[in-house]
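TEACHING EXERCISE
Course module: macromolecular assemblies
Task: Read the component lines below, then compare them to the predicted structure of the full complex.
Student: A.B.
Group: 4
Components provided:
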Amino acid sequence: MGERAEPVGPAPSNGPVDAGGAQAAAPGRSSGAPVRVMLLAFTHRLPERVRNYVLNLLAEGVEVDLAILGTDAWSEHEPEQWAEVSRHPRLRVHSLDGAEHRHPVRRVERLLVYKLPGGAVAGTKRLTGRGQRSGDGGQPEEGQQRIADAIHNRVFMPFYRLGRPRLLARMFHKRLAGVDFTDVDRVVAADVYAVTFGWQLARRYPHLVATMQLDLNLHESHRSAG
Amino acid sequence: MKVRRAPMRPRVLYLSFYFPPSRASGVYRARATANHLAAKGWDVTACAAPLDFLYGVIGSVDEELTATIDPRITVERPSLNQFAWNKDLRQYGRFRGSMPLLAQKLYSLSQRKGFPENYASWGLNAVARGLKLHARNRFDVVLATGNPFASFGAAWLFSRITGVPYIVDYRDSWTLDLFTDSPAFPDGHPAWQWEKRVLGGAATSVFVNEALRGWHAERYPRVADRMMVVPNGWDADLLTSSPGDRPTDRTRPLSFDYLGTMTSKQPVEELTEAWTRARRHPDLADAELNIHGHLGFFRNAHHDLRQRLGLPPEEGDDPAGYEGKDLGIRYRGPVSKTEVARVYEESDVLVFLAGGGRYVTSGKIFEYMATGRPIVSVHAPGIAAKDVLSGYPLWFNADSLDVDAVAHTMVQAGKAARDLTPEQRAVARRHADGFTRDGLLAPLEARMRSLVKRPLAEPGSED
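Instructor-supplied answer key:
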């Protein structure tokens, strides 16, 4: 399955949206355009504070671009809320749709830690004929699974997590290649894994406000900054 | 020819992170302590928070307060690593920007292995700055006030290196959560080890009330004999006019006033509800409750508090939850410490709103008493402030957070304000005279002087 290409909501207009939203700071945008925020949330489950932040921004009249690992990060945990918010005309979702899981690093790890040893154990079992005897309880597979889990959790993941912000930054650069960041006013990294991408965007686009703070009242602050 | 040298002034290194222009609630004690010591002939060097932190991160300053600092005091501002507060991605360096998780882990490790507080780097830099100054001109005593408690760690380290005795002033509690009356850290947390170490090495430890001293004495019995209480007090130099002398105008609506920073830890809902009910009484029908001060310590905290107070939403606020009723509550905004006398002068009843319980005194209450106005309490029962207020004749205390009971005391306080005589005010203010800051700081100054090991000039003498 490829990455999601289309936004969930329809493309927003640049005109005033409602009484509350009518200001902008990004270059090349009309002064009446609503503030546009790119929210980066790279955890597998969106915390309540992030979900509430999105809802509050939308209520303020802000245009929100939500960059997430997959829509299930919200829909699985709060399906009703997601059903409602995903239809919001000022929300665009940019999802990797599980592409991280399919990254070569993860594939190689699964191959080396799970598949090859698992295959070897299954092959050995077949050759020795133990698997056909009843009552052996499948112990070699269970043991191999435990060892593989231990290697995954205690060896692979600690190192993988350290490099994950860079890896995700690379993936989201591709995923968001079509986004015109000159139209974006603010980038918000909602967690530590999103910092690298947000930091890189800040370096590339000097006009962007790039922060980890989940600030509200953005029309006011962007108006005074502008 | 033999040159006769002037008698030596005792020299103190005062580690006080929050110092003017900060407007943190504890800054008044630090300001008064430094001024008191300078007035008593001490050569005071204060190590305080860097200005970029006060202006850029906390955003809570009162510049007029700086002018009230004795000009003889030298203020140093060691730097602070702002890792924990810096949310601006643009300011991140290459390492933090490209390896944020590793940077965070290394920072956490430094907290675990070094000093368990985000202000640890300031403490370390304060020690470095102190050593440099000490090499030029020796300090006699180190006085550290917390929070933050990195100042305590710095005092301990400075003393280990130089042998200079130190005193720690618990302006706030470190390991006791004042809002839940329970330990602030789990067993085994490095804060416990540090507190034991700091108290073990301190010449004296100072607490703001007997309840806090008792709690620490119970935990650290070996150093209990070196503990003393120095309550907060009111600053005579900041309350220069004579509040309370204005004749009561029975025709104008009563003004109830709260002064100070309002925080989410205070019983704001109870205050609002009790006030709403009290206003149903004819005497208070047109009364106003004025909130003077900041809403929350940090930027952007005021939206939530405005909502909890039933105040109309500001531009950009979420209007949901606002019922549109005028409850007679007015937010008057921050007041400089140098302007509070005017606010007191215009007030009829002062509202003592406090979070927490039996270990909380609140510095504000001393100032309230000095005005000779009726004070109405809105806080949990059994608060430590009771020890101070119990002799005050115009104290109206429901001793409960039951909104009907609080509303009733509000009505009583309003009536008392209407009928107040100059004699009653004078009696009330006499009670407060026992709590001037200078008077309360005298034993601490004497204790510090006793730690100085060289011949000194007489107290209060000038160069």
